Amino acid sequence: MDTDWGALPLEPLEHIFRQLKFKDRLACSLVCQHWNRTLFCCPALARGIVLGISGDQPAQVREALRASQRNYRQLSIVLGGDDDQPDNGSVNEFLTEVVGLWNVQNVSVVGEPTSLLDCFRSNEALFGGITELSLELTKNIDWSPFGKQDVTMGELKKLHYLQMYLGRERVSTAFRLIVPKLESAGIVLDSMANEEALYWEDPLIDLEGCDKMVSLEVDLNTTMWEPFFAVDRPHLERLLIRRASDEFQERDWDRIFQHMPNLRDVEMVFSSDVMLASLKRNCKKLEKLVLNGFCFHNGSFASNMGWSATLKQLFMDGWLNGGVYSRDPSLNLSALEDLQWKYVELTPAQGYFTLIAPKLRKLTLRGCDYKRFHLEVGPHLDRVDIDYYGPQQFAPNFFSSLHAVTQLILHINGDSFRIVQHLTYTLQLQRLEMICGTEHRGYEINDLFTAFVKHCPLLEELTVRNEHENQLKLNYEAFALLEGLKLLRLLTFQYITLTNVSGAAIRMERLDRLDVSGCRVQDPHGMLAGRFPIDGHVAATENMEWT
What we know:
Blueprint: H1 10-18, E1 26-29, H2 33-41, E2 49-53, H3 57-65, E3 74-78, H4 88-101, E4 106-111, H5 113-122, H6 124-129, E5 132-137, E6 149-152, E7 158-164, E8 175-178, E9 184-190, E10 205-208, E11 215-220, H7 226-229, E12 238-244, H8 246-249, H9 254-257, E13 265-272, H10 273-282, E14 288-299, H11 301-304, E15 313-326, E16 330-332, E17 338-346, E18 353-357, E19 362-366, E20 373-377, E21 383-387, E22 407-412, E23 431-436, E24 443-444, H12 446-455, E25 461-466, E26 472-475, H13 476-479, E27 490-494, E28 497-499, E29 506-507, E30 513-515, E31 520-521, E32 534-535, E33 545-546
Parallel strand pairs: 1-2, 2-3, 3-4, 4-5, 5-7, 6-8, 7-9, 8-10, 9-11, 11-12, 12-13, 13-14, 14-15, 15-17, 16-18, 17-19, 18-20, 19-21, 21-22, 22-23, 23-25, 24-26, 25-27, 26-28, 27-30, 28-31, 29-32, 31-33
């Protein structure tokens, strides 16, 4: 049934918006005058919505403007000449009115270069006063190139630029953005039509006057960025290199990193030994290093990780085949607090490799050769996220290093019960999460569940989640052991099948929250009378199945 939004009073509409619970911003277009008025007047939405303009809606916005009681700070504009998009003249007229009535600071613009040029020229006051701009150039093979145009944005502090494949090779720069106060920029190229274009197409924008830049996210293709990186960037603290073509990877990285001595946060995609060595030579203050996709094969890996006294976060994701070889069999990172080591493949020549991290607090290990990867940590390790699928063999000291861990996330499959042999002592776990997401057949977790419940008497939060389409089964006898966890407050079972119910419900008086969404209970004798088998807590069972 179609809803007549215009017939709803303001209060229900405001209630709807409050329930959206969006994390950042909600992008939407206008629906009707009453809806629009709610958008503009509801205090709960003051900074939470990016408004999209299309079709004949500038007139609708003007109508809502008269009812607005607040400063509207975020605006999204779609430019173009299609029937369902406003002509630029209509947009420009509307923006003139907006600038006079709203305190617009955050603008998002989508369009092809010619329309964008018209918008810039006609709305200098708007773009000269905003502090944040999201700019997206869309695919349009037929647009006519024009000479470089200067656009001054004197107050701009944050820029996000996305360029879809434009259908031309090496088009000259279209816009020179003069941004003296710019602090953060993301320059991203993307293509749904021609993947190879990512390696030779340059951005159509150039940045000038951004001497105070602190953060830069960039695709490094061809030679477009050489002049930019040839200038000292003493304020730059964060650099994210999203993509670099093969011929770019082995260029003179010293010419780039020598101008950024104060980098503290670096992320590189498809990095090599040469890139890592140059980063070590030129950037001595690194606190966070993210390596996504890499090949470290010349033996210098450990010696190139020269930030023992400063590096606090090291995230390495090999994307299933990230190779590491180090002539030095150990690496000491005395300041490291957070380590993520995913799909890192130690080469056959490596043998054992030991990471010494006495201050480590968080550890994530996924898809790694645990037997050859040794870890020496201090008493601060508190949170561990690992996968265990049965065949893996761990280094002798691995489980003994978990004695002080209070939070464990364990990714499991049908063979994960083999970890039980390592659980020979009481753990200090307060929060345990078991996740199944990689199985092609259903299986039971009775032994695994029983072992953890018996060895973790201090558990306060327990989650068992099935992310696969096949059944994850738990016998009622093992489930009943939960009654012995006297401190348990939060219990989450998602898409679990509880089998062989043969007794009364267990009592858990301290339980504050119970989530049993997607669960099935096999209760052939009707012993539970349609209730989840826990007393002491009122469980919502509308999303459960009973058999």
